[in-house]
Amino acid sequence: MKTTPFWWEDAPPEQGLASPPPESPSALIVGAGYTGLSAAITLAEAGMSNIVVIDAGRIGEGASSRNGGQIGNGAKFTLKQAERRFGPDRARQIMEDYDGAMPFLLDRAKTLSDDFDLNLCGAVTGAHTRNDLASLTAWRADLPQTERDRVTIHGADQVNRLIQTDIYRGAMLQEGWGALHPAKYVRALARRARELGVAIHTGWRWIGGTGGIARLQGPEGTVVLRPDMVLIAVNGYAGPELPWLRRRIVPVQSYMIATAPQPFDAMEALIPGNRVVADTKHVLYYFRRSPDGTRMLFGGRARFRSSTEVQSAEGLRAFMAHTFPSLARAEISHSWLGNVSFAMDFCTHLGRMPDGAFYSSCYNGNGISMATYMGHRIAEAMLGRSGHDRGVMNTRFPALPAYDGRPWFLPMVGSWYRFQDKWARWRD
Ligand SMILES: Cc1cc2nc3c(=O)[nH]c(=O)nc-3n(C[C@H](O)[C@H](O)[C@H](O)COP(=O)(O)OP(=O)(O)OC[C@H]3O[C@@H](n4cnc5c(N)ncnc54)[C@H](O)[C@@H]3O)c2cc1C
Question: By three-state DSSP, how is residue 398 classified?
Fold first, then answer.
């Protein structure tokens, strides 16, 4: 079993320039994932030159080449909950930001020359309990008519039309959402950025800076830059060099496995039409087939303590066998993990840190479309475009008292969530 992402078979992360970046870039973007690259594209498309993206690793080596490749949009809270926290106007704009993510991704995709297996095959949400099915039904009923037509609710006796499992009490199918190859997608963004003149330097870590100074450490030692602007786009990989951000972000490891190729027809029977699937549990399963349809790619929070790819593979295999008993003995060819980040209020946050650097963070596990769109939105702020201060931009980014970015509480919170999932099902 390999302990690297299945996606890297076709698209391993690329190196950028190893040389030190130029001393005075117009914009220095820290993090070469979807957020940083999307921001770079928007800045370059607006005519800015001398844009530099750096990454401590290779291009997209963070979550952007490791994720499940499921695309859609949606907030982790309802409009009513948002209204209570942000007031009616801001809440509506925040929902517009979430709703705008998927259309923005599809527009940006049209500008990319590389193929990345985009497939709007539809997304299934499995209902863990009858209550969850009722909530999905109510959520659909609140949608505007045009969107409602693209969403269908299926009772327990119809779930097997969408997915061959008996663990769900019903399901929702969302047309127009679907899948892409995450590592090919991040490559395609990097190619577009380079075509627009953006310089990408890898192996260079931002180690601090303030007042117009940025200190980087890389293959040639430490260098000092004087960028006009800085964007921190490190999401779940924020290290001790970013204490302000670390106090506001809970990084969570998410794990995935891939099976060795299985007979196509057997896989087509399990998830017809190669749709993508997630469920309504607190500690959810998310899964899909590989773009060629022959492998199962299964993800979830196998453990809440930091664990290795080998340890997590066992947990995920058990989850997969629970969902699809026919795959209980399937060979696992790959097991990998990556960091996602959550905010204390489960909202995405963009804005400026006290030292003046811009940031965009916390897509709460739904980051392919959101990171692409929020990269664009934060670039609008960097360009000073009128109207940029709306939605998730500049909302209060809460910090947890006495928290330094090491989430010691995760095992307890994880156990509590697992208990709630079990309890809800037991009562069902
Ligand atoms: C296993 C897994 C499954 C997921 N599944 C899905 C899914 O199916 N659908 C979905 O929408 N989302 C999913 N996500 C979430 C999604 O991948 C992320 O939200 C998204 O990739 C975030 O992109 P980003 O550019 O903000 O951050 P990242 O891609 O994580 O990039 C951050 C980069 O910053 C770099 N960095 C950090 N610190 C420094 C520094 N000091 N100096 C220089 N560079 C630095 C890192 O090396 C890294 O490359 C998943 C994530 C994981 C881990």
Answer: coil
Of 3, 41, 55, 117, best ligand 1 pocket probe by most atoms within 8 Å of the beta carbon: 55
281, part of any domain: no
Residue nearest to atom 51 of ligand 1 (CA): 67
Full-model pTM: 0.96
What are the Cα distances from residue 326, in Å, to 262, 295, 296, 298, 311? 11, 13, 12, 14, 22
Q: pLDDT tens, position by position, for the chain (428 residues)?
A: 999 999 999 999 999 999 999 999 999 999 999 999 999 999 999 999 999 999 999 999 999 999 999 999 878 888 888 999 999 999 999 999 999 999 999 999 999 999 999 999 999 999 999 999 999 999 899 888 888 999 999 999 999 999 999 999 999 999 999 999 999 999 999 999 999 999 999 999 999 987 789 999 998 899 999 999 999 999 999 999 999 999 999 999 999 999 999 999 999 999 999 999 999 998 889 999 999 999 999 998 766 777 889 989 999 999 999 999 999 999 999 999 999 999 999 999 999 999 999 999 999 768 999 999 999 999 999 999 988 999 999 999 999 888 988 888 888 888 899 999 999 999 88
* Same domain? 105 vs 132: no
Q: Which ligand 1 atom sits nearest the alpha carbon of residue 205?
A: 42
Cα 322 from Cα 303, distance rounded (Å): 16
Residue whose CA is at the smallest distance from ligand 1 atom 16: 367
From CA 242, how far away is CA 359, in angstroms rounded?
11
Q: Which atom of ligand 1 is nearest to the CA of 338?
A: 53
41 and 163 belong to one structural domain: no
User: Looking at the domain assignment, is residue 427 inside a domain?
Assistant: no
